[in-house]
Amino acid sequence: MSVHKEVKKVTTHVLQEMKRKGEKIAMLTAYDYTMAKIIDAAGIDIILVGDSASNVMAGHETTLPITLDQMIYHASSVIRAINRALVVVDLPFGTYQGNSKEALNSSIKIMKESGAHSVKMEGGREIKDSIERILTAGIPVMGHLGLTPQSIYKFGTYTVRAKEEEEAERLLQDAKLLESYGCFALVLEKIPADLAKQVAESISIPVIGIGAGGGVDGQVLVTHDMLGMTHEFSPRFLRRYLNLYESMGNAFKQYINDVKAKDFPNENESY
Ligand code: KIV
């Protein structure tokens, strides 16, 4: 039987075992109780309370404005829904870059106040001290390389990263360093598939890709994007499993019509 089917609760060790056995890891984002409950019941391995909540839930253009307390609010709503998945919470911009003490304090606050299982941070060698310090408190850390949205003003665009040899080489080294610091897994965002595969084959921790091809150990998508609730952009890596923008829009229109036409509520829907 697959590891995925066997386990009652996904832990960092389970993910390691899945990589060892060549079993792909499925990860999705969630920011609220109801969505997290549906995703967990469907059998997802990892739920990411991503700082993409800043875009998806709050309507900001970037991930930068979301605060630690807002992330904790989302994470604790998700945690109340979970029976099986491992829950990873993004450390938001400005809560770990200052120094390792700040990074540790932010991580402890997330773990204590939300009940989450681990944290994720963007960056490579430059956040070594923070990763190591967080790990000394027993908090598992997931890394994130490639397109790191918290650095969008440095990059200037959301285009594919590490296409040039120098950046690709640095990314490969950073992935090895993140493993050596003790990260339990790594997200690779929007980089060439060949490079992502090379990274996944060079390190023993699971590598989860988004826009990083099929040669990695697992995949992550933003749930609202894969459900087609968002529709303003269509990056090539995004597979839309539903068109909820349209079907929800139609349901809302139908409801409005029913109310206006005095069709809703009818007798059976009244006390
Ligand atoms: O915040 C997020 O949703 C993420 C994923 C895109 C990996 O970091």
Features:
271 residues, alpha/beta, TIM Barrel, 2 domains, 12 helices, 8 strands, 42% helix, globular, binds 3-methyl-2-oxobutanoic acid
Can you tell me about this structure?
With 271 residues, the protein is an alpha/beta fold. The protein has 2 domains: 3-240, TIM Barrel; 243-271, no CATH class. Helices cover 42% and strands 14% of the residues. It contains 12 helices and 8 strands. α7 links the parallel β4 and β5. The protein is globular and about 65 Å long. 42% of the residues are buried. The mean pLDDT is 97. 3-methyl-2-oxobutanoic acid binds next to β6.
Topology of helices and strands:
Elements lengths: L2 H4 L5 H9 L4 E5 L3 H10 L3 E4 L3 H4 L11 H12 L6 E5 L9 H15 L3 E5 L5 H9 L4 E6 L5 H4 L9 H17 L3 E5 L3 H10 L4 E4 L7 E4 L1 H4 L17 H17 L11
Parallel strand pairs: 1-2, 1-8, 2-3, 3-4, 4-5, 5-6, 6-7, 7-8
Bound molecules: 3-methyl-2-oxobutanoic acid.
Q: Quaternary status of these chains? A: single chain
CATH class of the largest domain, named Alpha Beta
Mean pLDDT: 97
Strand arrangement across the biggest beta sheet:
1-2-3-4-5-6-7-8
- In percent, how helical is the residue content? 40-55%
Strand content: 5-15%
Hetero ligands:
3-methyl-2-oxobutanoic acid
CATH superfamily of the largest domain: Phosphoenolpyruvate-binding domains
Number of helices: 12
